[in-house]
């Protein structure tokens, strides 16, 4: 998220096999996760005309979403289908913070790839989590750790209602481990200039139009793999 919509990392989930240690959760040091053989060969690119359609306004939403200013997004971050070799099951979400991509594993050795923003230095982590719950135009409540770092967030201690100005945006996937909310999310952003950058406190943001697409395909319980950065 941008400076105004950073979500804080809070209490650390306990370490588990394939899970997140305190050190890896914070700084993305090499935690033990399943080996993945990855490739990113584009099989279905997106023309500018198609991008204008895909990232156009969404007036039917509770809070109408404006068109993305595509001049602020590197075209390599447009949604596309790519070849992607992995042992993970179709439907799994894989976040690649080093390259600012989120993958949804599809059938046949393919994946849907989305451009993303990720955690800034000091807030990166890696390991296996899962989608514990979902939210549309969710209320955002800053964790106490964030309020301590950014006192201006204290005015939202009882929650900020959903809307375009809400840091969580139109859709949110809440990431859990062992039944505990990690305080990390995959969320929707209306800030195109954040894509391809490390700007958050550990959360992962997609353009609103991409996040709606991913959200609609992702049931509660979906595995999420955060790769080392």
From TrEMBL:
Residues 91-227 form the L,D-TPase catalytic domain. Pathway: Cell wall biogenesis; peptidoglycan biosynthesis. Keywords: Cell shape, Cell wall biogenesis/degradation, Glycosyltransferase, Hydrolase, Lipoprotein, Peptidoglycan synthesis, Transferase. Pfam families: YkuD. Gene3D superfamilies: L,D-transpeptidase catalytic domain-like. PANTHER family: L,D-TRANSPEPTIDASE, L,D-TRANSPEPTIDASE ERFK_SRFK-RELATED. Belongs to the YkuD family. This is Lipoprotein-anchoring transpeptidase ErfK/SrfK.
């Amino acid at each position: 998220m941008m400076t105004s919509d950073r979500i804080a990392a809070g209490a650390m989930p306990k370490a588990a096999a394939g899970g997140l240690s305190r050190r890896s959760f914070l700084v993305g040091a090499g935690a033990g996760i399943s080996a993945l053989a990855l490739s990113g060969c584009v099989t279905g690119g997106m023309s500018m005309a198609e991008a204008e359609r895909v990232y156009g306004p969404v007036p039917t939403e509770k809070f109408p979403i404006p068109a993305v200013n595509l001049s602020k997004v590197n075209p390599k971050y447009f949604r596309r289908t790519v070849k992607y070799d992995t042992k993970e099951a179709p439907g799994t979400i894989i976040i690649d913070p080093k390259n600012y991509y989120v993958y949804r594993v599809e059938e046949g050795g393919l994946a849907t790839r989305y451009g993303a923003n990720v955690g800034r230095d000091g807030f990166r982590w890696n390991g296996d989590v899962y989608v514990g719950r979902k939210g549309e135009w969710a209320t955002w409540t800053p964790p106490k750790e964030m309020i301590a770092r950014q006192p201006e967030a204290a005015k939202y201690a009882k929650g900020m209602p959903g809307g375009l100005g809400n840091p969580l945006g139109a859709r949110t996937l809440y990431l859990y481990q062992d039944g505990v909310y990690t305080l990390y999310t995959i969320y929707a952003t209306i800030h195109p200039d954040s894509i391809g950058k490390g700007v958050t406190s550990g959360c992962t943001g997609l353009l609103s139009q991409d996040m709606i697409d991913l959200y609609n395909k992702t049931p509660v319980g979906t595995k999420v793999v955060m790769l080392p950065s």
